[in-house]
Automatic annotation (TrEMBL):
Superkingdom, natural source: Bacteria
UniProt name for this protein: Triphosphoribosyl-dephospho-CoA synthetase
Protein's organism: Nocardioides massiliensis
Length: 135
């Protein structure tokens, strides 16, 4: 019987992990399914605004503003920037106890860590914090 080479299996698993990571990233931070032209412009503007955030304090203030006005596009843009900057405390505020978002974010952290895209110490702190421990 012919056995598949292990490198093919490991390549497939890596591709599956990459696909899953992309899926989680889109679900957490991406566009809405019903996005029209105006929504896409709004998302681009929100992403631009979030990309200018230089500190966690600035991010926390902008996230609070977005949440107080129910601006989901801006909140997602801020959360994405915080994920990229690895600002755990602001991400924790964004999650706000939503178990599904929390689970997806933890999984995205773990996949990103495995791919070498995150600082392991910070990822572990966020993971611990979001699972109910003290950071």
């Amino acid at each position: 019987m012919y056995a598949k080479p292990r490198s093919t299996d490991s390549g497939r698993r890596a591709a599956d992990r990459c696909g899953r990571r992309d899926e989680l990233h889109r679900r957490l931070f991406g566009t809405f399914a019903t996005a029209n032209g105006a929504d896409i412009i709004s998302q681009r503007d929100a992403a631009d605004r979030a990309s200018r955030l230089a500190t966690q304090a600035e991010a926390a203030r902008l996230l609070a503003q977005a949440q107080s006005t129910d601006d989901l596009v801006l909140a997602k843009a801020v959360a994405r920037h915080c994920f990229e900057q690895q600002w755990a405390s602001v991400l924790d505020e964004w999650v706000g106890g939503d178990a599904a978002v929390q689970a997806d974010l933890i999984e995205l952290y773990e996949l990103s860590l495995a791919a070498g895209r995150l600082n392991s110490e910070l990822a572990l702190l966020v993971n611990h914090s979001m699972r109910g421990g003290a950071a």
